Give the backbone structure.
Amino acid sequence: MRLSVRRGTTLLLCVFGVYTAARALYHALLCQSKLVHNHRVSILVKGSNQTQYHYNQDSPMVFVGGVPRSGTTLMRAMLDAHPLIRCGEETRVIPRLLGLRQGWKRQGEERQSLEDEDVTQEMLDAATTAFLLEIIARHGEPAQVLCNKDPFTLKSSIYLSNIFPNSKFILMLRDGRASVHSMISRRVTIAGFDLSSYRDCLAKWNHAIESMLFQCTLVGPKRCLTVRYENLVLQPRTMMMKVLQFLDVPWHEGVLHHELAIGQPGGVSLSRIERSTDQVIKPVNLEALTRWVGHIPRDVLEDMKNIAPMLSRLGYDPSANPPDYGQPDPQVINNTERVLRGDFKPPASLKRLSQEKMLKASSTRG
Amino acid sequence: MRLSVRRGTTLLLCVFGVYTAARALYHALLCQSKLVHNHRVSILVKGSNQTQYHYNQDSPMVFVGGVPRSGTTLMRAMLDAHPLIRCGEETRVIPRLLGLRQGWKRQGEERQSLEDEDVTQEMLDAATTAFLLEIIARHGEPAQVLCNKDPFTLKSSIYLSNIFPNSKFILMLRDGRASVHSMISRRVTIAGFDLSSYRDCLAKWNHAIESMLFQCTLVGPKRCLTVRYENLVLQPRTMMMKVLQFLDVPWHEGVLHHELAIGQPGGVSLSRIERSTDQVIKPVNLEALTRWVGHIPRDVLEDMKNIAPMLSRLGYDPSANPPDYGQPDPQVINNTERVLRGDFKPPASLKRLSQEKMLKASSTRG
């Protein structure tokens, strides 16, 4: 049967009508399912390039942490240099909310009271997730992989791994003697650490890293990776390849040159008040590796393996001052020479506060 | 031109196709706009009758509060008896989060530090809104109008009125002498109130109600309503008509018989641990109206207008023991007689704890 023009047109119109109906119906159902899905929080953020990023509790997320002064800022700065990842500065509020949340979780009178008021743990999880996602998603330029660095959040790794099912964790490890020397010499106030005592700070370091490592182990190696600061500064390429592979993110050479991305769009945003800012404006270098040697009081040195048993558990010889941390890559040696030559000065926007802090800190720095 | 059956069918199919396409497209666009709208949190809750309730920060919401022991539980119980409103028990966590939030708002070092870390007040508002909405929306059966009662939240009325643009506030007022006698005689622990001293509690009551009234005044009469406990128990019909009109909710006789809705679906959910539970299981009555008379130490009575200037500002004569609060409705007199006869016993599920509390509380009750 030959088709007349008119019949053909009519047929085409019908086919088109049905096709459009089917497509629109499909999209409507898809859209509706997004609404009714158990995504409690659905956040839309517009990037500077007008791209829209859609985040929810299933979004991939990275939490970087550890005991302060263990290279957490360096790690997050290197990740920030990757175009697909954004960490940004510390939020300060996330650990506070997590602290509140843990208080409502602990078995006891408070938890019982909440249950008597019909406030369930599930409700508190929903609310906490919503709060955290809002902060993390909005705290800087959007990116495919959101990241957050508040050192002590890794004390809540298990909890975070449950409320954010696609989250991963990077726990920075460092020779406790170096971390403690850094906090004392730079006078970095950390709740619970008595900066007038190496002994006390080492004991607190020990307790904190033990707790965070425990959480990391329970979260499991697929989701929690430990990274040694010493390895990161000695062999950054090897370490970052490992980190990016762990995060399932393609390699990008920029992570080895984070100092070039400072203040750049999609790059590294630094805080004037954070205590490592004056260090991470420089390329990866060995300045801080063994600065602690010779500064720890004799009696503490002699008692080291009792004060800080985690040192040997982590592979740091408590009686070696210092241990042999490993061999540096040529690039890092080169960076260190440039840094020692004075090639890296803080940018104007960060300079003033850095200078004030440098003046305030006493003689030896770590 | 006459239409053949076949042509007619074809035509109908085309029309139907276009119509379906248009409808589905319309719904798809509507749905999409719901996603991209600035509703940061979009919560879907299923009611027991399978109805879906969709909440966001623009949802109508009621916050009930005041100084504890001012009839806040009675008010929320009466509202809970309305089929369109759900308050539920105290959450306890909402005031804690609001406290944390206010700490991050206060001008000073903390706020500056947050700004240096790029954590803006807007971000904190988004996160706080998300948290509160999750708790309020999930804390009990869903309803058209969500309501929350944590007495001290009315210290944050202005803040809440900003983050929830369609929220309203009910501030319970009561003769401070009655509130204070109630907390002391029932030993109701309230942070900052020294239960061994009428003088201290009255001064604290004064400060708290002044602050909450100030907030209420600034929020404005369209959004914040003050309700006197005395008026509520003496003329409940008049007062509840005023309250429901203020809330823009149709009248429902059930609000005058909240005691019949206890533990009912869509009714009044009571907490075993809340201190007014043994009172609100009874119908609105006059038992607690003037119980305070004769219990306040003489020296405090003589100094009353200096200790608690808010008394006269609120219209309570500080030298009258008691003032004339007004005339009771016949229904309330009837209720009170039934209560005094012993007609209302706590239900089994609430009984045990109530009895324990009654045994613990000392002689006179208020």
